[in-house]
Amino acid sequence: MISLTGLAIGILADARQLDEYTNSKGLGYSTFEIDTLSDLPPALEATRKSLINNTQSLKQLTLGPTSLLLETLFTFNDLVALRFIYSHRIPSYVPLAGTITYTALSHSTGISPTLLRRFIQAAMLNRVFSEPKVGEIQHTAISRLLATDPEAMDTVGFLIEDLAPASTKVIEAHKKWPGSEEPNETGFNVENSTSDPFYLEFAKTPERSRRFGAGMRFMTRGSLYSLSHLITGYDWAALDKLIGPGTVVDIGGGHGAVSVALAKQFRNIKFVVEDLPGTVKEGEKLLEEGLRGQVEFREHDFFTDQPVKGADIYFFRFILHNWSDVYATEILRRLLPAMKEGSKVVIYEFLLPDGATEKWTEKQGRNLDMISATGWNSLERTTSDWATLFAGVDPRYMFLGTRTPAGSSVSLIEAEFRLLKDR
Ligand SMILES: C[S@@+](CC[C@H](N)C(=O)[O-])C[C@H]1O[C@@H](n2cnc3c(N)ncnc32)[C@H](O)[C@@H]1O
């Protein structure tokens, strides 16, 4: 057990380090007006995490159980305020420098000054806009981002207009379809009154699809998601040295983002990017001239037998977390007839810890897991989940384990095809 003072002492030491860093960079102290702590060196990233986790614990302890429970229960108000700001495009009406009064904002938006004041002041608690003088609004770093970066605004829209309402229907979906692993029996299906799965439903409304795509790009920006972790975090060089050459099949590879990045680094590995017809055509069009021959696109539905025989690696990024165990099993089973002794399945996905964690910096994994439940009836898996999944597909799959490259949000999960006589 640690005392409030003990937590505060740790916080003081971490805060001092970050202050010294921003001062040494000529940024002064951290402020809500500009982003002073982006792109920290790796050692200070650990300090940032420790500061976030300890301040959160300190705050939760200090609130006490009743206030903490009520604070959690009232978080829906945070989203309502943000939804108001999103749907009325408020960030675009506030000057990037200086202030605007509620009355002036009312003239440009057509919304009453009282409504504006109430919803914007609610959002200010989360540092979206500030009021340096009574009645005058100015941008903070967050609201400025919403004003200047369309993908940030699209992320708000996707999460608040599409996912949050669907999440309120998850329990109804569980009651309607108890124990379902079907991708079209979810909170998203109840909310949208549709029997089509998530992506098919989105495809009906181009604007919704576009907003989803922009949101995904925004949320995977930055070093935590950088493909450099995948490039350096796995021994691709061993495959590159093979005389033969080595082959990687990038299943559900989209437009080939992963294969293209790897192909540039490892010029002797051949990549086959498989996806559904429209995506494959787009990918082929986008492929750089210099990579033709090394990267090939091929139509393939991963619920049918794998056509590329004897590849060294069958690779999946951000695929299996969209599918419940029944479907993930089928996808992995369809690889078996194509695999040779030593063929590997390499998966690049989020990995949840086996046990619970209260660390605030690990909340993102929980968020993603809840989203998987809301939209797909799928899950973010733990190392034990992966081991159980492979064991249930076929005894020839030998689960090799999981690894998270330093500084990465995404982990490697690996299994090998071994004939039973080798065990
Ligand atoms: C979340 S994206 C991941 C794309 C890529 N792996 C990446 O990480 O950039 C999922 C991909 O799976 C593809 N997909 C969905 N169902 C599929 C199926 N039955 N067979 C093959 N690909 C499929 C989609 O077209 C999409 O490109």
What does this structure look like?
By secondary structure, this protein is an alpha/beta fold. The chain has four domains: 70 residues, no CATH class; 73 residues, Winged helix-like DNA-binding domain superfamily/Winged helix DNA-binding domain (Arc Repressor Mutant, subunit A), CATH 1.10.10.10; 70 residues, no CATH class; 200 residues, Rossmann fold, CATH 3.40.50. 49% of the residues lie in helices and 12% in strands. Strand 4, helix 14 and strand 5 form a beta-alpha-beta unit. Helix 3 packs across helix 7 and helix 4 packs across helix 5. It is globular and about 75 Å long. Bound molecules: S-adenosylmethionine (SAM).
Gap between N and C termini: 46 Å
The CATH class label of the largest domain is Alpha Beta
Helical content, roughly?
40-55%
User: Given the structure, what is the number of helices?
Assistant: 18
Largest sheet: 7 strands, mixed
Q: What letter string, H or E per element, gives the SSE order?
A: HHHEHHEEHHHHHHHHEHEHEEHEHHEE
Q: Helix/strand/pairing class, anyone? A: alpha/beta
Extended strand count: 10
Determine the mean pLDDT: 95
Report low-confidence residues grouped into runs of 5 or more.
Answer: none
Q: What small molecules does the structure contain? A: S-adenosylmethionine
Question: What is the general shape?
Answer: globular
